[in-house]
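notes to self, project folder thing:

trying the whole complex as one job this time. last attempt i did each chain seperately and stitching them together was a nightmare. two parts in total, labels are on each line so i dont mix them up again. if this works i'll redo the older ones the same way
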Amino acid sequence: MAITTEEVKKLASLSRIAVSDEEVESLRGDMESILKYIEEINTAPLENSVEDGLLHARRNVFRSDEKPNVSGEYTEKLVANMPDSEDNFLKVKKIL
Amino acid sequence: MIDLTTLTVVKANEGLMSGSFSAVQLATAYLEEIKKKDGDINAYREVFADVLEQAKYADEMISKKENINPLIGIPFSIKDNILIDGRSAGASSKILEGYVAPYDATVIAKLKEKGVVFIGRVNMDEFAMGGSTENSAYGATKNPYDITTVSGGSSGGSAASIAMNGALVSLGSDTGGSVRQPASFCGVVGLKPTYGSVSRHGLIAMGSSLDVIGPLGKCVEDVEIVFDAIKGSDKYDATSFVPVEDGLLQKSVEDRLLHIGVPKGIIDQGGIDAEVKKNFEDIIEKLKRQGHTIVEVELPYISYSLAAYYVIMPAEVSSNMARFDGMKYGKRVEGKTLLDDYIHTREQGLGKEVRRRIMLGTYVLSSGYYDAYYAKANKVRNLITADYMKAFCEVDAIITPTAPSPAFKIGAKSADPLSMYLEDIFTVPANLAGIPALSVPSGKTAQTDTQPSLPLGIQIMATHHNEQVLFTLGKVIETIRE
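result (full assembly):
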């Protein structure tokens, strides 16, 4: 699976990661070899594929919409973790 | 003097109960070993300042005969991706610098109830992505058997901390082999429990359909005791389940000879170290001599495991890692705009392997590729699970080597991500199928002039909820290995 430097840049942008020009090339090489390896799944015969859910015994888990945390219980700790805050609000750069 | 080398949870508990040593003395003995050895090994990211206070508290309970249980006063190391309220947690990543956990992971809350002593948090591959701890932003953890080799990963700090007598037991996490492979490399026991048997609440997520917290220790019994303490359903983890009642889904294997499966062709597949192969064959012979039945099992889809894993895992990684954007916690790199903040925080805060996996996951989930990769990988995953379910109708357990080689040299695989991924070849299938698996030390490599002897491990797998089979067979292997 060939992957171009343009595609790597596009993926980086979708992933919200800045990449330097030097790194694009090494990432491209790495991704190409990894994608070549995972291509193998395209050779797996899938006609016997089983319905999802049967095997993992997956089930829905319901929770009643009550007893949330006490308001403010974690506020102090969460705000203390914020890189920038003001009056218990998270502070970020202007968006619009 | 407490002999830490031969100490187990049961022996430590006997010592504490009989008063031959106190929890403070026990913790002090571990702290001294850490002081002596961790400069070379680098297992610990942080040794907690209040270890002796925690131990003193355990001693008070013991003297008052309160909360007497097998884990009271037992020294634990905790992987750096499991939250302890009020303490730093970093997943060995720069992006979480300064982060202080606002709550206890469920496993930690359970251990606190038992009165254990947390010695510190231990090193790992950044966000658990890697097989050697070389992806830690804080340097690799070296193997206590040979500091020129890796400790394995991603829970390398957990395994090394036990092997160097820096903790008696540890908690790690296993997404594709991250408890079992370092356990194998460092000569300790490591359990990847059934998916959902241990709550993931408070574990920094990597691949949410694969992740499970698991214990490491010196012997199978230690790991069993810790597993019993941390398992159980949890309202904060919807995938956690109530432990099944004995006799419902569990196979009874006590006091009888076992039927053990070996996947067809596994020993002869390429890329397996000769000593690993020989050791595995030796163990099989010894099990046969004990009267256990060894049969070949067919797992036709297992050869696709690694490819399916390296689609599903990065896909989940790319989603889980989206929360690390420099806004809410951890490191923030300031740019001109909000978008600049995001992309530069992630560029500088995340290591290369993490960034690679996020991008890989973004690729396999992107429109046009979703069906070719992600949808197909999930079908393969179901087929692999079906292979195991079928095999476990015939056998109690399936065994393989834990890793294709003993611990490798530091730097040997770090330049080639794919060669590092191939390390997971034997461990990944259990995560895809959600079944429990245990790595038990099975012997050591021969010592040469240039290479000290290194530990080898054998992996035992059983069907969902059947950790008991792993413990039973694991204890057998402990008695027959050399």
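what i see at first glance: Chain A has a mean pLDDT of 86.
need to look closer tmrw
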